[in-house]
Amino acid sequence: MSYKLAPSMMCCDLLNVREQIKMFEQHRIDALHIDIMDGSFVPNIALGACFVEQLKKETRLPLDLHFMIDTPERYINTYPIGEGDYASIHFESTNHVQRALQMVKDKGAKTLIAINPATPIYAASEVLDDIDGVLLMSVNPGYAGQKMIPRSIEKIKAMRKFLDENGRSDAEIEVDGNVSIENAIKMRAAGANIFVLGTAIQTKKELFTREDIERFRLSVQ
Ligand code: ZN
Q: Are 70 and 93 in contact (CB under 8 A)?
């Protein structure tokens, strides 16, 4: 499965988003990862629907919406999701995971089930028919700049095996949290194919440079 890069907009230079997006377009970035936080599901608040609306107008790059909010089904329709986009719903965030995934599907976007580090891989088992992939958190969500939980690599391997054995070798695995080059090489070997890029690859604070992206591409094949 080919690998994809999804830089996190939360880690961009937010006062120069236009410049960052231009660079992403020129460097064949696959999607813009957007962390949506509500201060309840995670201890931080970030990136609301207005900002995402503006992003959508600015670029044709697919969006990769990561809903880290309680009861996401109440807010999904306020975000501009469409054909070609991705949206991740956390298993832990609602009693109605399937309903939330279906809402994303109805908009023509790809669905991912997201799971926190302490959530077992089997959380994906009852929604295998409802998803295009899985998002594995390699840190507890809420903040950028955390260290990868060491078990993450084993978990990626186990998830890849589980998906393959259950007829879903087509399902993608996205990894989010401390995706440094060093960690990404191991994550890729374990079976992940979508990488959320953040502070771990940045050489300048809160800014993605061409060099950061190129260095990552050269190292992780
Ligand atoms: Zn994320």
A: yes
